[in-house]
């Protein structure tokens, strides 16, 4: 069985355990092993970089060393975790002086970064390692006619110089994954716009404005739901949309799905197994359309 070291990060186990549930259920059905990274810490989030570059680098290197000890590649479920861990991995592999300096600090706690692992986002594993053809073969109940808007998020595709997941201006990897479910990936204006999660921590109004602006364009595109691949993006669109209004002064009501949830529905998994009651924006409209249930 193919295996990956599962990096949970902070936000999913603390605030969105339903996303972890969906990832574990999906990879179990695909016969892919996910091995927990014991004693892993915060990635840490890229926002720490602006405060202390050394701490950002060393904490990430510690996490990388844990996966190296497992002799497995890392699978991340969060864009921020992916961006940080892969950026640091590439930086350390390309700079022997930096690597030596970091290992000097890690030696204090009995650890060493060797550069023998690889960091992958969940979407890369699904689309490239497992492959679209195998995923398509696993679909039993296609989500025919469902209009889904793909939201990539910032730290999945940028900076492309280090992440190299897809074209940062015209990404297609998530669109292809959505289409595998039988749904329609809806084109829309400002597709690569940030969800506003990081800025919300210092300016809540600007964060809300970004959510309102993007959801407005999704309404114009007649999207019936959104698919995200990051917990921060999930919180912004699933939760914050309830705090903003559209141009008519009405609340938005656009269901937001973490991509594995959509694929599992298409694979025939019952909604009751996926904790949709934890979504803040109700998913009934989508479930009623594609599954005949509410």
How would you describe this protein?
The chain folds into two domains: 3-121, Up-down Bundle (Glutathione S-transferase Yfyf (Class Pi), Chain A, domain 2); 132-291, Rossmann fold (3-Layer(aba) Sandwich). Helix 3 (53-70) packs across helix 4 (79-93), helix 3 (53-70) crosses helix 5 (96-106) and helix 6 (122-138) packs parallel to helix 9. The chain is an alpha/beta fold. The chain has helices spanning 11-15, 17-29, 53-70, 79-93, 96-106, 122-138, 154-157, 160-163, 173-180, 197-200, 204-220, 231-238, 259-266, 284-291; strands spanning 3-7, 33-36, 74-76, 119-121, 147-150, 184-185, 225-228, 256-258.
Task: Explain the layout of strands and helices.
Layout: E1 3-7, H1 11-15, H2 17-29, E2 33-36, H3 53-70, E3 74-76, H4 79-93, H5 96-106, E4 119-121, H6 122-138, E5 147-150, H7 154-157, H8 160-163, H9 173-180, E6 184-185, H10 197-200, H11 204-220, E7 225-228, H12 231-238, E8 256-258, H13 259-266, H14 284-291
Parallel strand pairs: 1-2, 1-3, 3-4, 5-6, 5-7, 7-8
Helix pairs in contact: 2-13, 3-4, 3-5, 6-9
Query: How many domains make up the 3D coordinates?
Result: 2
Give the overall pLDDT as a whole number. Answer: 94
CATH class of the largest domain: Alpha Beta
Using the coordinates shown, work out and report the CATH topology of the largest domain.
Rossmann fold
What general outline do the C-alpha atoms trace? globular
Radius of gyration: 19 Å
Order of helices and strands: EHHEHEHHEHEHHHEHHEHEHH
Query: What percentage of amino acids are in beta strands?
Result: 5-15%
Through-space gap between termini? 36 Å
Contiguous runs where pLDDT drops below 50 for at least 5 residues = none
Strand line-up of the largest beta sheet? 2-1-3-4
Tell how many strands the DSSP assignment holds: 8
Could you say which structural class the secondary elements and strand pairing correspond to?
Answer: alpha/beta
Helix percent reads 40-55%
Q: Which second-level CATH architecture of the largest domain applies?
A: 3-Layer(aba) Sandwich
Q: How many DSSP helices?
A: 14
């Amino acid at each position: 069985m193919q295996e990956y070291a599962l990096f949970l990060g902070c936000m999913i186990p603390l605030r969105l355990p339903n996303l972890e549930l969906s990832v574990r259920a999906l990879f179990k059905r695909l016969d892919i092993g996910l091995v927990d990274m014991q004693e892993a810490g915060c990635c840490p989030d890229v926002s720490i970089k602006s405060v202390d570059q050394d701490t950002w680098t060393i904490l990430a290197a510690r996490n990388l060393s844990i996966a190296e000890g497992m002799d497995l590649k890392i699978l991340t479920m969060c864009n921020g975790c992916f961006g940080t861990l892969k950026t640091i991995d590439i930086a350390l592999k390309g700079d022997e002086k930096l690597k030596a300096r970091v290992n000097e600090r890690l030696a204090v706690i009995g650890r060493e970064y060797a550069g023998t692992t690889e960091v992958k986002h969940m979407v890369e594993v699904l689309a490239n390692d497992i492959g679209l053809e195998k995923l398509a073969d696993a679909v039993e109940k296609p989500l025919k006619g469902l209009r889904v808007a793909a939201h990539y998020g910032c730290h999945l595709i940028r900076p492309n110089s280090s992440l190299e997941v897809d074209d940062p201006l015209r990404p297609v990897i998530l669109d292809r994954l959505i289409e595998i479910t039988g749904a329609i990936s809806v084109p829309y204006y400002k597709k690569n716009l940030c969800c506003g999660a990081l800025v919300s921590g210092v300016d809540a109004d600007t964060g809300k404005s970004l959510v309102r602006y993007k959801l407005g364009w999704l309404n114009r595109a007649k999207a019936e739901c959104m698919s995200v691949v990051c917990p921060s993006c999930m919180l912004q669109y699933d939760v914050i949309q309830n705090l903003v209004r559209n141009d008519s002064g009405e609340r938005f009501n656009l269901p937001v799905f973490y991509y594995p949830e959509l694929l599992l529905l298409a694979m025939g998994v019952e909604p009751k197994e996926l904790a949709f009651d934890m979504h803040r924006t109700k998913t009934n409209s989508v479930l009623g359309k594609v599954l005949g249930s509410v």
